[in-house]
Amino acid sequence: MRKQILIGLSLFAAALLVRNLYVMLVDLPDEVAQGAIFRIIFFHVPAAWTAFLGFFVALVLSIL
Description:
Order of helices and strands: HH
Largest sheet: none
Number of helices: 2
Number of strands: 0
Oligomer: single chain
Low-confidence stretches: none
Mean pLDDT: 91
Helix content: over 70%
Strand content: under 5%
């Protein structure tokens, strides 16, 4: 049962990733002054926050 839940959540996460990448790269309009290069912010900033959250969780659990 645990393996089925893990597979289901993994497929759900992959589907969300594909959807979000599509929206970021295709649906969103270009920024007026910077053009298409501005779109990388929509991917890299959340990725950085997620990484920092992972580092913080690892720090807290290592201390405990």
